[in-house]
Write a structure and sequence with these properties.
heterodimer, A: alpha/beta, 10 helices, 49% helix, globular, B: alpha+beta, five-stranded mixed β-sheet, 11 helices, elongated
Chain lengths: 218, 359
């Protein structure tokens, strides 16, 4: 067994078993948990590279786990897993610090790819998450009034390149294909994606929460 | 029976006095038809809680009242006005309290208040004309005190009654909701599960059934009403994807950014998009396609991408006109563009762009 050390948090035993079976020999499973308290305890004890975190969990949701442990264990990376949750919940988990999210219907190879990517410190955008970003950061939409502490106004806008990358992601392109299409390296595509995720996490644009409240992400 | 005939007949009868009584009785005893409901012909049912004996008593009372009114009219006209006032006030109050109207509508409350004032005015006038006003005042004060006492003593009972009524209502709403959910799940999920069991060896059919059911359930649980009801581009796309997935072995992941009401041009773009999806399903060999569409003030763009076997656009024979006619042709007529990027082994991407004339 090799590869990144993975911890699975999901309240359905079937999902946990399915994930284990699909990732199989390519990663090292260090543990699993069905609810928030066991997850916090288990992750503290095992210090995994990647936590696959269900958005909906008994006892506060994936967000509760993330918020408890994020400051304490900055080296652990988080990937949200979700079935059909409201966009609000998925966005909340991402804003709490997850590096991306995948659906539970994702194919085995794609899931493995996502886990590896997150383990390497990159972010995972599904076409739908990219669509959400484009919608929430639409050019004409009003930004939140910056009355509180001076936030970086750049956080509320996507650069032209970032927008291009998001559009290609929404069209179903892989990072490699985007690099070829835009004549940039895969690393550059990854850094654009990371920047966008950071904006998604830090921006206090009203649109984000409003959009998430009225739409679903899956 | 034509309601008009009934009304005219009662108006004629009312001049003799007996019509008023009959009308009042019928009003009390007939069940109220729900709006829009056709009354069953030849079937007269008494309202709940109205026994035959009660009815007889009411008939006797009514006849006595009409006789008394006749006497009063004969003896002295002075009492007529106050009596009419009281009757009118009562009629207004009854009319408002009847037929389950809610008190929250302001018009109903004002009508009720008006009726009460009218009836009270009638009573005062009646007492004044008969010279009983002073006596009545004393009696009224005593009655008021007793009434207040009774209300105060029984207050907890009233409260409990109100509470239990609220609880009952909540329970009823809950059970109705549960029944609606159960009905929906039965019609959709259980049926699909049965179908899946029957097609257990056909993997493609199973996954198509599961996929279609998943979409339906999700739409039912989460989709905003607008998308469900259609009329906008996002709704059109969602419906179209569901159709294509049902007819072909293709899984489509639609991502829609922005939205707009569907006009003729958008409907045409939708048809072209469907054609592109069907093409991907038929010719690409891929099992999944990505659909991305973006609505901006200037244009609507659609991208359909598959990772199938692809083709060389230069070598498409002239008789294979599906893409060229129904996609490219349609878009060009509307002032848009259609672009097909493909190479053998690389999959295909169809890009449709329609400028928005309204902008």
């Amino acid at each position: 067994m090799s590869g990144p050390r993975v911890f699975v948090v999901d309240d359905h035993a079937m999902v946990r078993a399915g994930v284990r079976a699909e990732l199989g020999a390519d990663v090292t499973f260090v543990g699993e948990a069905p609810d928030v308290p066991t997850a916090i305890e288990g992750i503290r004890a095992t210090l995994p590279d990647v936590v696959l975190l269900d958005v909906h969990l008994p006892g506060g949701g994936g967000r509760a786990v993330l918020e408890t442990l994020r400051a304490e264990l900055p080296e652990v990376r988080w990937l949200a897993l979700s079935v059909s949750d409201a966009a609000e919940d998925v966005i909340a988990v991402i804003r709490a610090g997850a590096k991306g999210y995948v659906t539970k219907t994702i194919s085995g190879p794609d899931l493995l790819d996502a886990v590896r990517r997150v383990a390497d410190g990159d972010v995972v955008f599904s076409p739908r998450l990219a669509g959400f970003v484009l919608d929430a950061f639409a050019a004409g939409a009003p930004a939140a009034p910056a009355e509180e502490e001076a936030t970086d106004p750049g956080l509320d806008l996507l650069s032209a390149r970032e927008r291009e990358v998001m559009q290609l992601l929404a069209r179903g392109y892989t990072y490699r294909e985007i690099g070829q299409r835009l004549f940039i390296s895969v690393k550059t595509v990854e850094s654009h994606a990371s920047n966008v995720l950071r904006k998604l996490q830090l921006s206090n644009r009203n649109e984000l929460t409003r959009w998430a409240a009225t739409n679903r992400l899956l | 029976m034509d309601p008009l005939i009934v009304r005219v007949a009662f108006a004629v009868l009312a001049t003799t006095g007996i019509g008023v009584v009959i009308y009042g009785l019928l009003w009390l005893t007939m069940p109220v038809a729900a709006p829009g409901e056709e009354p069953a012909p030849g079937r007269v049912e008494l309202g709940p809680g109205t026994g035959r004996r009660q009815l007889l008593i009411l008939v006797a009372l009514g006849i006595a009242a009409s006789v008394a009114i006749g006497k009063i009219i004969q003896t002295g006209g002075a009492l007529l006005l106050p009596l009419i006032l009281v009757a009118a006030g009562l009629a207004v109050v009854w009319r408002q309290l009847d037929a389950d109207r809610t008190l929250s509508v302001p018009g109903v409350r004002w009508a009720l208040a008006g009726g009460v004032v009218l009836a009270a005015g009638g009573v005062v006038l009646l007492l004044a004309t008969t010279g009983q006003l002073a006596n009545a005042r004393n009696g009224f004060a005593a009655t008021l005190v007793i009434l207040i006492g009774v209300v105060l003593v029984t207050a907890p009972i009233w409260r409990r009654l109100l509470d239990s009524r609220g609880e009952e209502r909540a329970a009823r709403i809950r059970s109705e909701e549960r029944a609606a959910v159960a009905a929906h799940l039965h019609d959709s999920v259980l049926q699909t599960l049965a179908l899946i069991q029957r097609h257990a060896d056909d993997q493609q059919a199973v996954s198509r059934l599961a996929r279609g059911q998943e979409r339906e359930l999700r739409a039912w649980l989460y989709d905003p009403k607008v998308v469900r009801e259609g009329g906008t581009w996002a709704g059109l796309v969602a419906g179209m994807v569901a159709d294509v997935e049902a007819d072909h072995a293709l899984i489509v992941d639609p991502v829609v950014v922005g939205d707009a009401p569907v006009d003729e041009e958008l409907a045409a773009l939708g048809a072209a998009t469907r054609e592109a999806l069907v093409n991907a399903a038929k010719h690409s060999g891929a099992t999944a396609a990505d659909l991305y569409t973006e609505v901006t003030p200037e244009r609507v763009a659609v991208f359909v991408r598959d990772r199938g076997k692809g083709f060389d656009p230069a070598t498409v024979p002239d008789d294979r006109r599906g893409l060229r006619d129904s996609v490219t042709g349609r878009l060009t007529r509307l002032g848009g563009t259609a672009d097909v990027r493909s190479a053998p082994g690389e999959g295909t991407e169809v890009e449709l762009v329609l400028p928005r004339s309204a902008a």
